[in-house]
Fold this protein.
Amino acid sequence: MSADKPLQRPLMFAVERTESTFDEIPLIDLNGASSNDPDLRRQMADSIRDACINVGFFYVTNHGVPDATTSRAHAAAQRFFSLPLASKIALDIHNSSNFKGYTALLGENTDPLNRGDLHEGFDIGWEELFESQSQPATDTESEGAMKGENVWPSEEEIPGFRKAALEYYHAAISLGKYMFPLFALALDLPENFFDDKITRPAAIMRMLYYPPQDGDVSDSTIGIGAHTDYECFTILWQQDGINALQVLNKRGQWIDAVPIPGSLVINLGDQFARWTNDVFKSTKHRATNRTGIERYSMPLFFGTDYNVKLEALESCVSPEFPAKYEVVTAGDYVKSRLEATYAHSKSN
């Protein structure tokens, strides 16, 4: 293979279903993802493509998110969740039209068969870290169903909380933008295919706290029930040394996504599944903290601009595999899924 000529493949390559079951989560080193060598980028995209088709999950190393930034955000989350309940309830997510703020224990239910998710959460969306920061122009119309601002605890309650949270948020956003050209290559699309679809990234970040579960624990109340994520993909930091995340394979087995120090977990969501007509898998997963100690995690759900239509790509449709999903905007889809998740607690 020539070093100065990228590998060419036919447009319909993406409709080939080569999926298989899996027993472990692959690990991909992102070093070289921005290389000038097209064959090197192609090889990395092929590794990502294989993970996206067969697993829907993979670890990444050399991801560019500084350890210090992650540590500060983790410490900020610990301080927030240790606040008195009254202080957290003042930021209750049910008071927000765009699902930002605090979620109490059992405040959401991702699996309708369960009684509720045993975790607390705090959600934020796009916001500039500094007033002078270069940013996409505000367009509330394009945000549609999800428009609205973040809510924050006061500086008096938790000094530096907003800064620590947003520093991590923007570092994860940078990683997400770094990943999109690789996903495009994995789908045999131009590397800039997604550029005009993520002009104002519709990314939601959560800080999550899972209290210890010990003794007899019912399977109907776990950290977070079996579910798929709603956006294109999720960038997940999970606490080292605490095994809680599990991924469902095709045999119906729960595979542990054991924390690997220095890595982040990438998992695909429903937006990519819809766009790719299920060529890319949005895989069910859950978290159960039965370690006897507290667990924290920070997922960032990276989606397209909310006004983008989720319509199956030409390269992922064929007479044998016609388009499976109705066309909806990204914002309407995310809002409908969030409304279902919080419906049980809103009615209580």
The chain has one domain: 24-346. The first strand starts at residue 27 and ends at 29. The first helix runs from residue 38 to 54. DSSP finds seven helices and 16 strands in the chain.
